[in-house]
Each structure stands twice: as C-alpha cells, then as structure tokens.
Write a structure and sequence with these properties.
This protein has 180 residues and is α+β, with helices and mostly antiparallel strands. 31% of the residues lie in helices and 32% in strands. It has a single domain, classed as START domain (Alpha-D-Glucose-1,6-Bisphosphate, Chain A, domain 4), CATH 3.30.530.20. The protein is globular, with a radius of gyration of 15 Å.
Length: 180
C-alpha cells in the first residue's frame, strides 16, 4: 500500500491509509464537525441516510502554517461551503455521501473503515463520478492525498503541517502519474 490515489475505473478514485485507532476516533473525524474541521472541513454530517452533509472549507485553518493561496486557486474564495446528502450510515464501518460539485453535478464519497493490526484502522476512500477533467482529477487526487495526510498527522499527535506547500507538488506528481 502507498499513499497515492489511483483510478480504479474511468471515474472512480481510491486512496487507502492505515491510521492510529481506535476506530471510534477515526469515525468521529469523519462525522463530527469539531474533528472533521481539523483535517477536511467544518460542518455537520447528519447521522442518518438522507441526512444533510455540510462542508465549510478553509485550507488556511487546517494548516499549522498559514500560506498564501497558490496562483492557480486565487480566483476561488478562501472559504467555500458545499453540501451533500448521506447515502450510507453504518457507524464505524461505512459512510457515504454525495458531494455537490460547483457545476450542479454531484459525485459520491465513500469511507470504509475496518480494524487493522495492532490497534490501527484501515481507511479506504472511494470517490466516484469524478468529473472527466484533467485539472479536476489532478486537483482532487492531490487534495484527498493532502487531507488524508493531515488526518493521519492529527491521529498520530503531530502538527497538521502545511496544506498548499504539500498539495501543489502533489499536483505535479499526479499529473506525471496520470498523464505522462
């Protein structure tokens, strides 16, 4: 297993991480705003199928070192709110929700959790219906990679680390991996 995202079919991206447990703590990081806001986005995930998912993104807040927004993303606001709907809710094993894209379409994000050796947790992230756009695929791959690394750092008791200075080199790596 490595940290890199890979496409398992034309529109489905997957990543895996082995994280410190217990599994209840990892679940809280996926579902509770106070924990989710430290590695991905603030906002609630209603604990039922059909429940509302709110993401308040602010990559400056999850970084332990404020950094300027890269030129590529300067036209986007620093804080972005997105919504979705819970499709699967099986505490400690499966969470799935829609991810509303800016163009009116939606994709789906699936988190699968399982116990792993020595008190660790295996997290499998699957992002389906990823738009067929080179820039989007590179950006979403680097984004999930960076966010999941921040989650791992938090669970390991480390500083979150910077966001943009990790994300942008990963975009270059993913362009090389996917398109060269």
């Amino acid at each position: 297993m490595n940290d890199y995202a890979r496409f398992i079919d034309d529109d489905t991206l997957t990543l895996e991480r082995i994280l410190p447990g217990p599994i209840e703590t990892v679940w809280a990081c996926l579902t509770e705003s106070e924990h989710k806001g430290k590695w991905l986005s603030g906002g609630d995930v209603e604990s039922k199928i059909g429940g509302k998912v709110t993401h308040h993104f602010d990559n400056q807040k999850i970084s332990d070192k404020p950094e300027p927004t890269p030129e590529k993303y300067r036209d986007m606001p620093d804080q972005v709110t997105m919504y979705g709907k819970v499709l699967a809710w099986e505490p400690y094993t499966l969470l799935s929700y829609t991810w509303e894209e800016g163009d009116g379409s939606s994709s789906e994000v699936i988190f699968k959790l399982s116990d792993h050796e020595e008190g660790k947790v295996k997290l499998i992230l699957i992002h389906t219906k990823v738009p067929d756009s080179k820039d989007f695929r590179i950006g979403v791959s680097a984004g999930w990679h960076t966010h999941l690394n921040i989650l791992r750092n938090i669970l390991e008791g480390k500083k979150t680390g910077p966001f943009w200075s990790v994300h942008m080199p990963l975009e270059d790596e993913y362009e090389e991996r996917f398109y060269n």
